[in-house]
Amino acid sequence: MAKAIRFHETGGPDVLRMEDVEVGDPGPGQVRLRHLAVGLNFADTYFRSGIYPVPLPSGMGVEAAGIVEAVGAGVDNVAIGDHVSYTGFLNTLGAYSTSRLISSAPLIKLPAGISCEVAAAMTMRGLTSAYLMRRIYDFKAGDSILLHAAAGGVGLIVSQWAKLLGLTVIGTVSTEEKAEIARAHGCDHVINYSHEDVAKRARELTGGTGVSVVFDSVGKSTFMSSLDSLRRRGLMVCVGTASGGIPPFDPQLLAIKGSLYLTRPALADYIADPAEKAELAAEVFGHVAAGRIRIDINQRYKLKDAAQAHRDLESRKTTGSSIFVI
């Protein structure tokens, strides 16, 4: 009997329950996967709270890595014994489990040198970082970016990747401990938003012009300061809403603040094409395997402690990547 974290109603972390589940044999196009590690992502809290509505009861989690134990008819992209990882959205929901059936389509065979723990910590964050660095903006050496949550899982990958591209990275954090982590991963400058004016400091650091791009995963509480940090015709990339959704606003605001651009991308739209997904995955896994980008797993939890893991995540106690070890 496998174990899985499920929720029967939306709400706070306490709605998460560990339950016994029957897994069974894979059907056509499916595999049975035994998890070795499961990723913990802020997006998980959106499913639990109801921001991302799903039929209930529901499983939890969209990212994990493990060993293929059985394959169904028509599966030709992976084989029994392969180490794989996956991430997605509704098509991969249910990752908080010891074993599961899953379509073979989202599975990524792990290259040599990438463990299941590292894969669970980086597949979603790595693919997110890959499209942010390679698809959102035509970066040139010398461009500057403002990176919110610079000590978070995506932030630490983006900052390292940005340095490979020759960018100037200005990160924002909430504590001096996180500032040290951000600097160690490539941030040229760090702004502690607990006591510094982010927009004012970002402009000071760029000679008054502002940054080329802002990556904002915080949302409501940082939206206006992010816009005010941009140079004329700069790009605002809304990649998350950790502090709440961004209130409606008049698009004229973008013109007033310098003919700014704004986008709200979603990972699903950058990995929907299998060829593009494979290209992005190869690039980010290649950087990690070669040591050009390192993945820090700073929190490890047992699956039974999912509620506490969510509390830690939402209270911003975590840094780097967090995983469940099976």
UniProtKB/TrEMBL annotation:
Residues 11-324 form the Enoyl reductase (ER) domain. It comes from the Bacteria. Keywords: NADP, Oxidoreductase. One of its GO terms (cellular component) is cytosol. Its EC number is 1.6.5.5. Coiled coil: none annotated. It holds the Pfam family ADH_zinc_N. Signal peptide: none annotated. GO terms for molecular function: mRNA 3'-UTR AU-rich region binding; NADPH binding; quinone reductase (NADPH) activity; zinc ion binding. PANTHER family: QUINONE OXIDOREDUCTASE PIG3-RELATED, QUINONE OXIDOREDUCTASE-RELATED. This is Quinone oxidoreductase. It comes from Georgfuchsia toluolica.
